[in-house]
Please model this.
Amino acid sequence: MPVKKKATKKAAAPAKPPTKNEVYKAVAEKTGFTRKDVVAVCDELTNVMVKNVKKHGQFNFLGLMKMTLVKKPAVRGGKLVRNPFSGEMVKQKPKPASRTVRVRPLKSMKDKL
Model:
């Protein structure tokens, strides 16, 4: 006599965030602009953000979030530092200086969530 397997219900996959193209499409539908116009506006907004972060070190994006430029200095190698996981002393690796962007939500963004 064959054994019947119970139908297992697959767990619903978590909703993925929208892709860039899906965002462009949604904005175009809501505003009535063509997708090409929406892409052009978003590209120009990106250029303005990058230009201001480079020049002034920060950019306030429409009162929703603040982007700040963080400059990390170079680290010389060879210094003995403690490994927090094993507790042993190891030589620190040298790291070049770098620049990165930190994004922080502002009050209006926090209030909307």
